[in-house]
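User: structure tokens for Protein farnesyltransferase/geranylgeranyltransferase type-1 subunit alpha, please.
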Amino acid sequence: MASYDSEEEELDYSTDPRWADVTPLPQDDGENPLAQIAYAPEYTLAMSYLRAIMAANEHSSRVIHLTSDIIRMNAAHYTVWGYRFKTLMFLDRSNSFEDKSTGWSWSWREELEWVGSIAKRYEKNYQIWHHRQLIIDHLDDATGERAVTEGMFELDSKNYHVWTYRQWLVQRFNLFDEEELATTARLLEEDVRNNSAWNHRYFIVFGKPGTDSATEVLEREIEFAKEAILKAPQNPSPWSYLKAVLRKGKIELTTLKPFCEGFSPVLSPDEIKSSHALDILSEIYDQTGDAAKAEKALELLASKFDPVRKNYWRYRRRLLGSQALPTTSGTPIVQAAA
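Assistant: Done. Predicted tokens:
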């Protein structure tokens, strides 16, 4: 690879002979712009050259260099990412990933390595993972990609963009397997409050088209959630997961009564260890016709255990006996990430 492809190198396109044939196009903000953005001079210059390149519809090795430089300064510029991918596809189709005249060379794998380095610098950037998705989809090869995401989870185990990419990998390459299930179990062992991992586990277990809710799978997931609840009774994620599994298996909520009463004996407020269990018990008591206990559970939530949402809990009290609970109760539904 030619030395000028180093993303760390400070560049001045106006004095670089390799860009002498390009007339930069400055940004046109119109006359007397009301809120003109004060870009850094080097960024303004690089974008002026990119506009000229895009106007000429040029797809060459120097476009990869130029977009690398701009992305280093502004990794959120989706137009730059889009033009870079378009250029990579052109170079691939024309067998131009090597330029013997300059010694420049590139490959899809080198691109993935470069993208990985950018991802570690800009962890919360969506465009990076969309670009990676386009590449892997084109290559039709997910080898090593799960390891890449797990490396990112070591930096932030709740990174939404990485989880979204991981879910796409599962769907694209049919990775609904034991390795994926084991990954969620490991991440939840490390942090039982990782709602992203709970989310992904539900997707792995129930998200594959045509998946049957086999009894043994439902029992396994119910026990998995209960064990997590025992570790952190006030953590809403496993309670949400537990309710979602029951809904998926069309299992009556009343089956949770003994388990929930172990955390929230409604007649002994001082012994209550989980407001989430108390919430579920209010539904169970309502379903079984024990109005007094249902009312007391909701009043305890309103007055003692979750007073911030007292209006919501008292609204729930008014619904008792109507079987008309709102679609979103005090415990959110676990769903797959978008």
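User: Anything notable?

Assistant: Residues 126 and 334 are 23 Å apart (CA to CA).
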